[in-house]
Structures are given as structure tokens and as C-alpha cells.
Amino acid sequence: MPDAAVTDPAVTDRSAVVAETQIDRDTNQTTGQPTDDTARGRSLGARPVSDRALAWLMLVGGVVGFTAAFVLAVEKIALLTDPSYTPSCSLNPVLSCGSVMQTAQAEAFGFPNPLLGVAAFPVVAATGAALLAGARLARWYWLGLQAGVTFGLVFVGWLIFQSLYRIGALCPYCMVVWTVMLPLFGYVTLRNATTGMFGAKVGGSRVVRVAAQWHLVVLTTAVVVALGLIADRFWYYWSTLV
Question: 30 phi and psi, to 5 degrees?
Fold first, then answer.
């Protein structure tokens, strides 16, 4: 019988070199940052949604957010022109855009808040359209987008607190923007984390893996908590409608 095959040490060494080279291609060993291939979408772990699904979310979310912000801006201009004007979204003592628009919080940066959405949401929608068309965006662009959606979510959180516990009224169009910002932030962040935009260490962390696996649970929980806070804060009014 022929002798058993013997592994050639030279072959083993070449395999090791190939493996190390692949690692070097994926991650810059000097900076620890992802290289272009990784930054363009090579996943470091489980992806919650595909790039195409994220692109559709950004396109639709951007259009919806822009529409809500634009209508709010028009209503604000009408209110400034005629103080007696009743906005179309002033439906009752709780759902009252007019009450919210006339507060200092409605101009947090010295100009009407809706102008932020009018400027920002078209960028989100255009990014989604570009991705659907096959564009491959650079790492700096994704990080810039991350900064934008993070600011948006923090600002929305502040506005929710102000609406519930300081102003005591809700703006329906504002709530549309709140609803859009939550999944935009969540899925852009998960996409960036799982593709190495924040570095391989973050992308491979247990927190990111769990968030990617249970993303729908996390999103649903956040929505339920927000609805619960709204229901509790204005229960005195909701209870009269039952």
C-alpha cells in the first residue's frame, strides 16, 4: 500500500501567508481602521438588513421626513404672518401644532426647527437613491451620515421631553419626524457598526451582535416606550375619549 500523504511544510507556510495577507487587506494594521473594501460594505458580522433595504428605508424615510418638515415650515410661516391662524394639525388641546409652534423650543437654534428637516432629509433621501443606483460611498460619507442621524435622534429626544413635560402638547407632524428618525438612526448605526466603520473591535463586539440579531425587538421596544410615555402624560385627556 502507498504511504499516507505527508503535509508539505512549504504549502502550510504559504497558506498562513495568504491568511495573514487577507487580514491585512481587511484592516489597516497601523490604524486599526477598515480598509476601502471593508468600508464599502464587507460585513464583520451579522447584518440586520441588506444595503438595498437600508437604501429604501433612507429614500422613503427621507421623503416622508422632508414632507412633514416642509408642511410644518409652511404652517409656521402662516402663523407668523397671521397670529390668529389655526394650523391644520391643531386638532384638539393635546394634538396642537399651534401651541407647540409658539414656544421658544420651536426655535431651538434661533430659527424654526422644521428648517433643519427641510435641509437634512433631502440628503438622506438622495443617499438612499444613490445606493439603489449602485453607488459605493466612502467611509467618511458614512461617518458624516452617522453624525447627522445621531444629532437628529438626540434632538428628537429633547423635543419629545419638551413636548411632554414642558409644553404639554403634541405636534402631529413633529411626531411623523420622530417616527422616521428612530429607524434611520438605528439601521444606519447598525450598518456602520457591522461593516467596520467604527473599527473591527466595535464591529465584532457582543453588543453589536446582539443588537443586530434583535434589531426588531429593540426598535419595537423603543416605540412602545414612547407611546407609553405619551399615553401616561396625557391620560387625563385620552380617558375622556373612551
Answer: -85, -45
Q: Which of 152, 157, 161, 162 is nearest to 104 (CA)?
A: 162
What pLDDT was estimated at residue 8?
53
E-strand stretches of the chain: none
Q: Are 88 and 75 in contact (CB under 8 A)?
A: yes
What residues make up the domain containing 139? 43-241
The pLDDT tens digits of the residues spanning 105-126 come to: 999 999 999 999 999 999 999 9
Domain membership of residue 93 (yes or no) is yes
**Cell matching residue 93:** 388641546
d(CA 77, CA 235): 32
Whether 91 maps to a domain, the answer reads: yes
Give the contacts of 240 (CB within 8 A, at least 6 positions apart): none
Task: Report the sign of the C-alpha dihedral through residues 63, 69, 73, 75, in that order.
Answer: positive
Q: Mapping DSSP to helix (H, G, I), strand (E, B) and coil, where does residue 172 land?
A: helix
Amino acid residing at 67: T
CATH number at residue 124: 1.20.1440.130
* CA–CA separation, 235 and 242 (whole Å): 11
CA-to-CA distance for 170 and 93, rounded, in angstroms? 9
